[in-house]
Amino acid sequence: QAKTAGRSTLRFFDPDMQAAVTQRATLEGELRAAFAKDEFLLQYQPQSDRSGRVVGVEALVRWRHPGRGLVAPAEFIGLAEETGLILPLGRWVLNQACKLLARWQSDPYLAQLTMAVNVSSLQFRDTSFVEDVLRVLAMNGAPANRLKLELTESLLVENMEATIATMEALCAHGVGFALDDFGTGYSSLTYLKRMPLTQLKIDRSFVRDLLTDPNDAAIIHTIIALSRSLGLEVIAEGVESIEQRDMLARAGCHFYQGYLCSPALSEDALQRFVRDRVG
Ligand code: C2E
Ligand code: MG
Ligand code: MG
Ligand code: MG
């Protein structure tokens, strides 16, 4: 039945679907307005080394919704991508992150930190992306070699040559690249080798059951071996327990991010967190 209906047939008789459409339209309107109302904010999740020292942060966007409180990115990034709103939002995120990165430079401890920023593929594909990133860095007086852009594997397979060209243009200025949620997509090893990457980021889903699922443990060992042979740093995300961290350390993982160290923090809380740990 559905197969013969044809692609152009509109079907609006499903009340659940109608409700979803309305809800989506509401969310889209609110998302557009959120910009003008300055409702977005960034939080920063620490990344630590084996000794527990904070070496960097990942900037994570949140939406302070008037009725719903702090909304997680999973609830609006997808829609922002579909509607193109991710372009101005992504630029805003990058600007905020670079502003903070510049401010850190006058502090002996904070100046050492790297700032990781998530970049969605639509943003990365934008013809002015390289120019935008360099301008935002320069405008804020932020050091390019402290900025790390997090890309996902899907981006790499879409248009390899253009992706490499964009990465190399930024890499020449010192910008680093992390491959986010690594292991959940499908990267060809040849491509990985050609890409100017700094870091592989082991996806949280492999870390979660690391202690009980031998397959996850095997995958983690493989990713770490791979990063070593490619000369890349490796960081694990979603590290929640000491046992997970110890196991990762034994497997040769360099860096950790997760609730064990800290959840994402406000700018002020992060500064206190870093300074407290330096002693
Ligand atoms: P991600 O880049 O993989 O970020 C890590 C996510 O894992 C964050 O969720 C973080 O809060 C969460 N997390 C960190 N440690 C733990 C842990 O120990 N246990 C568990 N269960 N979770 C942990 P969040 O902030 O909700 O972000 C979700 C995703 O939204 C991010 O995944 C990223 O893909 C996307 N995102 C966030 N900010 C931005 C942004 O500015 N731009 C774009 N394009 N995407 C963003
Ligand atoms: Mg990320
Ligand atoms: Mg990730
Ligand atoms: Mg993830």
UniProtKB/TrEMBL annotation:
Residues 24-278 form the EAL domain. Transmembrane segments: none annotated. This is PAS domain S-box-containing protein/diguanylate cyclase (GGDEF) domain-containing protein. The chain holds residues 578 to 856 of 856 of the full protein.
